[in-house]
Amino acid sequence: MVLFLSLSLKISAFPKSTEPIQKELESPNGKVSVNIDTQSKVFHYSINVEGDELLSKSKMSIFPNAEVKVLGTELKSVKEKWKPVWGQFSEIENLYNELELSLLYETIPVKLYIRAYNGGVAFRYIVENIPNNTKAEFFMEYGLSEASNLYTPAGESKPKGPFRLNYLSDSTNKQKLLMPLLVEAKDKHFVALLESDLASAPGFNVIDFKFENKLVGRNRFSNTDDGLVTPWRLILIEKNIGDLVTNTIALNVAAANKIEDPSWIKPGKTLWDWRVHSYKAADGFTYGIDNESYYRFIDFAAEHEIEYFLIDDSWYTDVKKGHIEMSDKLDLQKVSDYAKEKGVDLILYYDRHKGVYGDEELFPYYKSLGMSGIKYGFMGNNVSFSREAIRLSAESKLLIDFHDSPVPFTGMTRTYPNAISREYCHAQQDSRRAFTPEAFIRMALINALQGPLDMNNGIFDITGVNSGKRQKGPKELNSLRTTVTAEVARTLIIFSGLVCIPDAPEAYAAKLDLFEFIKKMPVGKWDETKVLHAKMDDYISTARRHDDEWFIGSVHSKGGSLAINLDFLEDGKEYQVTYYEDTQETDSKTNPEAYQIRKGTVKKGDVIKVQMVAGGGHCLWIRPNN
């Protein structure tokens, strides 16, 4: 239900004229305000938080160099709640004040929508008709203080920063800036600059950030249609850096679910074969690309309630239009039949480097093979191509997981919830490189702002991987610095609809008491999510609730303790807690697999001191004591 409320804001008396305006739009709680100024016939905005300037006067336009006039305004307030198909919350509140401006850019009528939320601001242009040969571009300056620190994703590498704006202004500096940008502002607020609902904006590519006296974001329009709808340009604002990860504005502005019956979309965990090749089990069996190896994965998944098994590259040898040549190393049909018998769903990799099957036919073909999803590799940052792949996969009732520097489709999980995950990060052992504990925390606070990540955490045989006992292990031996409890915690901290755990069944079977946390964790079915602690490069601690059970995962790059305050538990209830911990002997370099498990009881208001070694982690599973 949408409730339209009457407001007594400063802009309630906007004129119906072409006179310049200089007014203000406030968030529902009054703490965030957007100041609007068209007195110079150029549209300017600025943002204040609790009376202090966060972004100074900045230009914004849809037609470069065109003068703008205000024809009229309309104000409304919206308060509604909606339920996502899956996600970090089972219900999301959409609460904002919106200003609709009717603008005239020279002779072209334009609508500009500005929404002020308690956690940020959103902007979108809509143009119904564009004259021929008229260039359109969503141009937006960000008047950040020079004292601000800025961080950027770096593709499949560690995110970069912090950068000061004067560093970016150096003409010799070629630093590439990617969405989402994270900013530590001068007043100690944290800001995320990104966009949402690119799915509803044909003709636009991902926002391009550059420094041109001020930080600038551009979306260039290249469609031949008569009109345009831009993505929503977002400025998220939080006092705590971790709250940016749970900020729901990007989902609230995204188009509603387009899949009429999404009941087939089931988030979950998946085993994965790619990093297990050449692993030798205690019984002498060696894993490879063959039926027996895949039967072992499927058996373990079935026994331990893991929903999926993901088969990566090398199940086929060649692709031509309408034809995929199967490898003679395995019989995929028998694997598919075996998985169906065991109640395990399969996800199958596809690599465009080997040839183009044709997407119109590809997804029905995958469905005919008995697949439940596709892991799509090497599509790249092609917006229209990727958007269409999501739509077509949904028509065939297939989940889709994008790999290899994909489009950061922020908000897509609302519009097409079959877009279950994407490798918009440096995945664990990606390109056979291990990432550092510091890099993990950066990606959890930066890359994760654009949505679910496929990061492949959860390695249990750390010693075996580090010693080179895998065909696809890291090129640099002993470069995987982590602990087994940190690996478990990472599977919870990184939000995804498909948690891909990359180790051998026997590696998990050898530590089933620790694997219990992953097994019990209801991926993507969360009712509530909180980031309890977060500091760039140092630590992050995330709590997620399903029904009346809480799962909490923490990691610390430098080693140390965090105080977990259980004030979110219910009054009057006693809870059982299981602790999954590093030990005094655990060392992320020399003894990464040492861990301990203990149990106890807790209640609301208790404070648990969580201790971790450098590069280590900690997990808590809390549930009512029956």
TrEMBL record:
Keywords: Calcium. Its cofactor is Ca(2+). GO terms for molecular function: carbohydrate binding. Residues 274-423 form the Glycosyl-hydrolase 97 catalytic domain. This is Alpha-glucosidase. Gene3D superfamilies: 2.70.98.10, Aldolase class I. The lineage of its organism: Bacteria, Pseudomonadati, Bacteroidota, Cytophagia, Cytophagales. InterPro entries: Aldolase_TIM (IPR013785), GH (IPR017853), GH-type_carb-bd (IPR014718), GH97_C (IPR029483), GH97_catalytic (IPR019563), GH97_N (IPR029486), Glycosyl_hydrolase_97 (IPR052720). Monomer. It comes from Arcticibacterium luteifluviistationis. Residues 525-622 form the Glycosyl-hydrolase 97 C-terminal oligomerisation domain. Residues 25-254 form the Glycosyl-hydrolase 97 N-terminal domain. It comes from the Bacteria.
